[in-house]
Records
---
Amino acid sequence: MTANLLDYDLEGLAAFCERLGEKRFRSTQLFRWIHQKGAIAFDDMSDLAKSLREKLKTTADIVALPVISQTISSDGTIKWLFDVGAGNAIETVFIPEDDRGTLCISSQAGCAVACRFCSTGHQGFSRNLTTAEIIAQLWYAEHFLRKHLSRTERVISNVVMMGMGEPLQNYSSLVPALRVMLDDNAYGLSRRRVTVSTSGVVPMIDRLAQDCPVALAVSLHASNDALRNDLVPLNRKYPLAELLQACTRYLVAAPRDFITFEYCMLDGVNDSLQHAQEVVKLVRSQHAGSWCKFNLIPFNPFPLSGLTRSPPEAVSAFCKVLSDAGIVTTIRKTRGDDIDAACGQLAGDVRDRTDVQRRMIIRRSTEITNQVNSNTATAVREDAFND
């Protein structure tokens, strides 16, 4: 078995070189060839000793992910579908802006959190990605874009771990990948420009603050526990009070002085003025200052969700309540929805390993049956009373 060098952060690569009997500084040279120059052939790494190059040919390789498809949106967004084996695929999205280039990266094949409004969650969970598979998305996108755009300098300025999966449920692979992204000998990204998005895995939020604090985005989507239990099932394990306390603790180590809360706007579900007022109360219950900002996300409908997008006037009214309360609030511009690359649309060709669709149908059927039985029982009691 050869080692895939995309699996290593700089410290791990140094240890690998030492096992080959090489000096640690060789790892820095090798790291730069892989990540800064996009090299995959050891013979191309001209400043490495020939003896090291020969050793690497028999002990290591640089394995990118096979590209199944590439789709370019009318707005310039690019979506790649990568093959990760066993019938599974992951998706990665590049979003160009005038002042930045953002890459949305997946951390799992599928997702076990099963948020109601997310098409990936409806596909079920297959497996965690390795560090190499996480980094391979950035490696491929960066070097493809340099050629595609005829540029020699870095194209990707921001990375968001907002693709398929819950990053903090794949912590052991995530942290080394983050360290590669941040390393000046690799991609040299600022901690402020690397964002981990989580649905609220409280213990791992605390660990991330200690191990590799980057920008944090939390998928909130609800103003109270009862609603969030339905939309984000993980809330039953880590309710809102615990989640918000973890967020305020994270601020001590965070590279920014705020946490971003993502809020998917669902028509008639979480978008009323009362919900907005509850959000304000929720935020103020944890911290008096300006410690968070909200990103309101237009829902991207898909079959099986049973949900629809909030109308623009409802989103604007919700935004006004938060803004009037002094909470920085933005409405996300939808990008790449014509190629199913918008927020919540990433599904790929992922097997339904958790049988989630069948379970959801059973759960909803049970809820309907219970409601019918309850209504019937009420009617029987009323008839008996009337008699």
Note: Residues 3-61 form a domain with the DNA polymerase; domain 1 fold (CATH 1.10.150.530).
---
Amino acid sequence: MRAFKFGASCALSRHVNRRVLAFLLLLPLVLEAEARAEASPRGLWVLCEGSQRVLEHPERIDRLLADARAMGVSDLFVQVYRGGRAWFASSLADPAPYAATFREGERDALQVLIARAHEAGLRVHAWVNVLSMAGHAEGPLLRDLGRRAVAVDQHGRSILDYPEFEVPPPDREYYRMGTPAVWLDPAAPGVAERLAETLVELVRGYPGLDGLHLDYVRYPDVLPYSPGTRFGVGLSFGYGEFSRLRFQRETGLAAPQGKSVLNANRWDDWRRAKLTQLVALIGRSARAEQPRLRISAAVIADRERAYLVDFQDWASWLDDGLLDFAVPMLYTRDATLLRHGVEALSGLGARREIWVGLGSWLFSNQPEEAMAQLERVEQIGGLGSALFSWDYIAEHPELLDALTPPPAVDPMLPAAPAEASAAELDGEDGLRSE
């Protein structure tokens, strides 16, 4: 019996020692993985008018935070401004949605969500739709600035006059709006200033915010795309009377109109500059209120299209410090396109902070593909990621399961060994139970 106890003790000792040795060998890999996770943030978009409406339902905050942590999310992009309507305390935007949000004592819904997220170790960015007013043709901004604030095409037609905000006949036979909506012209009088003031109101009222996340910060586009005015084809926007007069005043040149390609390149450069100036004004104004605030933007993933069609020079925004990071929306089911896109963004990410936006909602019937895309981003290295969107994932539990990695095994807590077998007890020292 004594020999049995001694043999078993030696076998268990060897078993534990092997565990310790394995842990010591794996420790550098564990630390590297933790460092990589820290250097590779993961965002999650949370819609204000999606299926969950978490700012209206306090009981859903626990589920949001639990889902986010399960998926390894580090940052929440919580939508609080859409269509000129505010889910935060505002005197400049339409406050009707804010009135429908919940309260806990003296704190409103956004304050509660920020505090709870911080307790859970998550950062919160206020997600705002900048130049798209969605389907809202009325509201404080348009009431105060008037029709001149709305984008006009090269034929002099305001989007306000587009039927259901879609391209009117006869052009509709050939073109479709990329995103049908009321779009603001960033170069029109008062637009940039009004948007910046509204977002200052946001960050001033919620000092706990970690970031300001800009969306729809681009000119509208149509399908199929036309790469710039110089070709004289397609539809483009920003041709309002006041914008064309401003261009002439600032450059001494006449703005093209209709089928004209006069000064086309300078015109495109000018519109691109106006969009950049809007981003700069928003960031400068917001950081004056909260210097630690991180500014980011959801951007068109194809840089050439972003630059030539949407006048969104987001790589330069990063280079010039207007953004802290960019989130290119690489939404595709095509694995080859995803690989090409991620590789291109990885090259950019060598000296810029880039999070790859993934369209997880595309894979409700193939949830494993959503995780495969996420793994593709992480395999490249040097890139963050962002998932669109929590509302859709919450509706499809199979997506949540697929995007939730298996629980990590703590190497400091080895599993209890099974009952020692005769072969284990025999061991190298020849001690046996008899």
Note: Residues 44-405 form a domain with the TIM Barrel fold (CATH 3.20.20.80).
---
Amino acid sequence: MIAGVDERSRIVITGIGLASPNGNNLAEFRESLLAGRSGVRPYEIRYVGKTVAGVCGFDELRYQKRKDLRRGTRAGSVGIYCANEALLDSGIDWANVDKSAVGIYIGVTEHGNVETENEIYELKGFDYDTQFWSHHHNPRTVANNPAGEISLGLGITGPHYTIGAACAAGNAGIIQGAQMLRLGECDVALAGGVSESIHTFGIFASFKSQGALASHADAQRASRPFDVDRNGIVVAEGGCIYVLERYADAKRRGARIHGEIAGYAMNSDASDFVLPNAERQAQCVAKALERAGLNADQVDIVSTHATGTASGDEQECAALRRVFGDSPRTSFNNAKSFIGHTMGAAGALELAGNLPAFSDKVCHATINVDQLDPECALAGLVINEPREQKQVDVILNNSFGMLGINSVVIVKRI
């Protein structure tokens, strides 16, 4: 538990629901990670043309009707699917849960771009006559939309909101959920992150203009963090939502526990719009370890944020060397090499892919590393093939974002 935290405030993960480009539940996702199976595929979007992306294939109609899909958003649909799956996984007696005591805390990179772009595109066909503008525009584009759609879909009357934290948002959602439980603002938290980013041409165009949009003749090899020939980000959609509860409540109902939130931290670079800052990232990792009451040599797996950009990967590796040194004791891996960058969902989704290691003691690899960049040569980096571990008791999850926002979550086996 977090150092100094009262026993009654211990927070645990009791449910996981996810949608990823290579799996629509934790078992499928984990199987793909261990098998080296990528979910990146060829993709085409207006104005940008042919590119690659991580595309989800979950059953949209499992928890929604077609009318709901037409009225709502892709991010909302991802969130509703993940939230329902997480509740099922938790085994909680949902019918008898006080819905006013459930909080929804969803990390997002951005929201509303997809809907605005689509509506402007359609309005062009009516000579920009705004009488044809969708009356659904406002509820679709408000920042709280994904969390609000979950609230509507599940009849939750407790607090709901989104946390805008760029690509650190998935971790930020988890942190917010844990904090609200400790404050007594809710008894159950649905926390994590979602992304619909592949449906907006703007994000592809912007990364392309930066020279940061990945390309490769083989789509499944386009996302290749740490490789000397990496050339940018693969944009992906997805989501991951956790059921968080106080340990005492989970224990009382005999819940299966995926792990305990042992520590977390967030800070800011305050140095550049897009370029990362290794010193600030290292400080964020160190603060999370301090709050967890852990030393660096007690961490078994570090899930890296590495996006496949030259400076991003190098700066993170520099930060990790500051904290962990050159000891091979800790293993380092990366899930973006399999699914691309799921933006607001990245922190939550990538953490989920590692949690089964508490049971199977295997660290999944980073794939597509043909020639390791010497600047990224961490001593414990797991490349191309999974690594069996003697033990996995502590997992540290990095997630960083534009405008210099950094987040770290640490989970321990219980």
Note: The CA atoms of residues 268 and 335 lie 24 Å apart.
